[in-house]
Specification:
Length: 185
């Protein structure tokens, strides 16, 4: 479930973090506890204006490296439109621009992870857009087939929003990596 939500979020434009916790299984058991999200909805809203843009280098196993460009428009106190566009490294489009209207709370919830599966620590990372002091989220998911998915997300403390770096591996094999190459506030 984590992998499906992760990939679905990435395909919807990596609006903020690109993944979330698995939905609780239907039962009489108490709902899962969640780790704190890196930013509040308000912090994300304050950091975002019309024209805010993220450009990521995206590496997917078995595919050429590409770029994902996320652009915010129609920004209000309640919501915004996020447009996502994938290109190759030369800028050639790999598909249509996909636009989605989202609330700030929906964006915050993209970074919600099960507390028992998540470790949060401080760290730093250097990516194309610079060097950032970060909150590093490490999320381990065990699947019914015995496989393990490890997701690492670096959220820059001074850049509320999407992670500046993200990697996903399954049973130790890298599947996906994303790094921020440019950011326009």
């Amino acid at each position: 479930m984590l992998k499906r939500r992760l990939c679905g979020s990435l395909l919807c434009g990596l609006l903020l973090v690109g993944c979330g916790a698995a939905a609780p299984a239907p039962s009489a058991a108490a709902p899962p506890e969640y780790a704190p999200t890196p930013f509040s909805a308000r912090e994300i809203r304050v950091a975002t204006r019309d024209g805010r843009q993220y450009t990521f280098a995206v590496h997917v196993k078995g595919k050429p490296t590409g770029r994902r460009i996320l652009t915010f428009s129609n920004v209000t106190d309640v919501n915004a439109t996020v447009s996502s566009h994938n290109t190759d490294l030369t800028g050639v489009s790999l598909g249509p621009v996909v636009s989605t209207e989202v609330t700030w709370e929906q964006l915050r919830m993209h970074a919600r992870y099960d507390a028992a599966s998540t470790t949060i620590r401080e760290g730093s990372t250097t990516v194309g857009a610079g060097t950032f002091e970060c909150m590093v989220y490490v999320v381990m998911a065990r699947h019914s087939d015995g496989a393990e998915t490890l997701s690492r997300l670096w959220f820059a403390k001074k850049l509320p929003g999407a992670p500046v770096r993200m990697s996903i591996s399954r049973n130790g094999e890298p599947l996906f990596a994303m790094t921020l190459s440019r950011h326009t506030p």
